[in-house]
Every structure is written in C-alpha cells, then in structure tokens.
Design brief:
The protein has eight helices and 16 strands. It has 349 residues and is α/β, with parallel strands linked by helices. It folds into two domains: 2-10 and 153-269, FAD/NAD(P)-binding domain; 38-150 and 275-339, 3-Layer(bba) Sandwich (FAD/NAD(P)-binding domain), CATH 3.50.50. The strands form three sheets. Strands 2, 3, 4, 5, 6, 7 and 16 form a seven-stranded mixed sheet that branches. Strands 1-11-10-9-15-8 form a six-stranded mixed sheet, covered by helices on one side. A three-stranded antiparallel sheet has the order 12-13-14, with no helix packed on it. Helix 3 packs parallel to helix 8 (320-339). The longest helix is centred in the last third of the chain and has 20 residues, at 320-339.
C-alpha cells in the first residue's frame, strides 16, 4: 500500500502574497530585487502552444519577452503521446517533442524561458506585476495561457481548512512544515517536484496519487526513491480533509481496501482536472460562469494590456493548432498595443 514512486499534477494557488514576499524562500529577496529591475514588454504565463506561439511572434518582433512556465511537461499537449495532424510537422511525434521545438524557436528569437509558478498578480498597475516563486516580474503587457488542467470541484474540508493546513503551492509554504507530516496529492512532475521540496522541511511526506502509477520522468522517480522521508501512495483517491482548528488527517479511498485516514499536519492539493487555471488571478480579469477568461476577437480581456489564449479561454475544439493561432492573434495585438499602431501589419515571412 505504501510504495515508492511514480507520479502527476496541476495548478498553483496562493492566498497570501505577503507571506511570499516576506523572505520565506532562502534567496527570494535577492531575486525580487534583480527581477524588479527588469521591465519586459511581454510576460507570457504558460508554456503550452498558445503561450509559445505568442512568444515566437513577440520575440521575432523584438519585444522583450519572458515565458513563465510552471512545468514544461504539465500541460495537455505535453501528455499527448502521438501528434500526427499538426500542420508542417511530420508525425507521429510526442507532444512534448513538439513543445520543445516551439520552445527552442522562441528562444532563438531572444525570448527568455523561466520554469516558475506565478502565484499572484497585479494587472492594474503600470507596469503590471507577476509574483512568482522565484521573483517578481514586471511587464507592460501580459498573456495568460495557463490552459485548463485546474480542478473545478473541491473535496470535503478543503475550503474549510484553507490556510490552516491546506495549500496549493508547496514552493510558497513548505517552510511552515518544518518537522511535520505532510501529504501532497497529485500524479505528475509538478507534484513530484513539490513533494521533494516539502521533504526538505517535513519529517514525513506522503505523495498521494489516485492512479496506479506516476506519470513523471525517470530522474524524478530516482529522486523519490532516494528520499528516505517520502512515501508514494498509489491508487488512493482523496475523499476529505479532517481536523479541528487545523488539519490532522487526509481520508483516502484505496482500491479494494476502502477508506483510511493518513495522519498529517498539512495537505497540498495538486490534483489536476479540466477547469481553466485562473486561481492565481484573484478575480482581476472577467471570467465566464464556467470560469473561462472572457476575451474579444483580438484575445483581449477587460483589462487593458492583458490578453488570454488557448484552453484557458475555453476554445472549442481544443486543438493545439487552434490554441497556437489564438496565441499569434494575441501577439499581433500586443505588438499593436505597445507600439501604438492603428492596424496590424500582415507578415508571412
């Protein structure tokens, strides 16, 4: 039942930005100073086809662009095993390979790529501020391309104990669990990475995955195996979080065994779903009743200088080429917005 590894995840949320900026992470204050001295023309949140397509175009237009991506293998396209219908690309190829090609192309045009999670934003400031786990990024415009692997439904007790043992960003809150017992729920690379981070502080970490195995690269499996204080619980679905004033247990349902309680002091909920990933926005842009970011025909949100593209806008059908096209439309409008042009100049070269 308690077994060593294999894994999966999605989504980051952070309810108290003041804690993030208080020097929680060892070198965070130094990073903040460095990053706040840099002003980007474009900050792209999300490294899927929409975000990378936008970055390719803005980079080629000589706009200073940074892509902030929580996990290069965390999106829908990265999990696709065979892509055969992407125009101009001979298939079948793994989705991760297609993404790497797009990432390399963006880098070739001078874009920066940072593997980091954006946990809060100030989109109404000038310039706009993005608070990430390794610094504060300032940009004149922002593209939100975080996809749709968030969770729409919470389990019992999750909301009740939020901030009292329940969290969504281990990178932000791990240090609060020095010497304690923690559960991390999820089955992918992000969950594995977060579990290993928590293990630096916690006495014991349980990585709880509802699936029969973890979907993570081999090097993460190796690291989990080496971590003496990390146990992987496979085939266990989180049912409810229990406690009194603070969390004291996670109830899971294990196949063929029924429900059992794992005694823990904290739970990081990193399971994935199909909802748009918008929790880090804090209601700063207009959303539909389904939680999708509302955009116009130019991918613009209701906040000037802020755009959205890809699955986070709930486009249909959900295809990589359509998400990439939305990213390109956003890029052209961003260029127009920054340069104050009245029209977008077509460019097929």
């Amino acid at each position: 039942m308690w077994k060593k590894p294999r894994l999966w995840l999605v989504g980051c949320s952070y309810s108290n930005i003041e804690q993030l900026l208080s020097g929680l992470l060892p070198t965070y204050e130094e990073d903040v100073v460095k990053m706040e001295d840099v002003l980007y023309d474009v900050a792209v949140v999300g490294g899927g086809p929409a975000g990378l397509a936008c970055a390719i175009y803005t980079g080629r237009a000589k706009l200073k662009t940074v892509v902030l991506d929580r996990s290069p293998s965390g999106g829908s396209l990265a999990r696709a095993t065979k892509i055969s219908n992407y125009p101009g690309v001979k298939g079948p190829i793994p989705g991760a390979e297609l993404l790497q090609t797009m990432r390399d192309q963006a880098l070739s045009f001078g874009c920066e790529y940072r593997k980091t999670a954006v946990v809060a934003v100030d989109l109404h400031s000038d310039p706009k501020s993005l608070y990430a786990t390794d610094g504060v990024f300032r940009a004149r415009t922002v593209l939100i391309a975080t996809g749709s692997r968030g969770r729409a439904d919470k389990i019992e007790g999750e909301e009740e104990f939020l901030g009292r043992g329940v969290g969504y960003c281990a990178t932000c809150d791990a240090a609060f669990y020095q010497g304690k017992v923690v559960a991390v729920t999820g089955c992918d690379e992000t969950a594995a990475e977060e579990a290993l981070l928590v293990a630096r502080f916690a006495r014991q970490v349980y990585l709880v995955c509802p699936k029969s195995e973890l979907a993570i690269p081999a090097h993460f499996l190796h690291e989990l195996e080496k971590a003496s204080n990390v146990d992987v619980v496979l085939g266990a679905s989180p049912r409810r979080i229990v406690g009194e004033q603070f969390v004291n247990g996670l109830v899971v349902r294990v196949r063929a065994e029924g429900e059992k309680t794992i005694p823990v002091d904290g739970v990081f909920m990193l399971l994935s779903g199909t909802a748009p990933v918008t929790d880090f926005l804090g209601g700063s842009v207009q959303l539909s009743s389904d939680g999708c970011i509302i955009v116009d025909c130019n991918q613009a949100t209701n906040v000037p200088g802020v755009y959205a593209a890809g699955d986070v806008t709930c486009i249909h059908p959900r295809q990589a080429i359509i998400a990439a096209a939305e990213g390109v439309i956003a890029a052209l409008q961003i260029d127009k917005y920054i340069r104050g042009a009245e029209t977008v100049k077509p460019d097929y070269t």
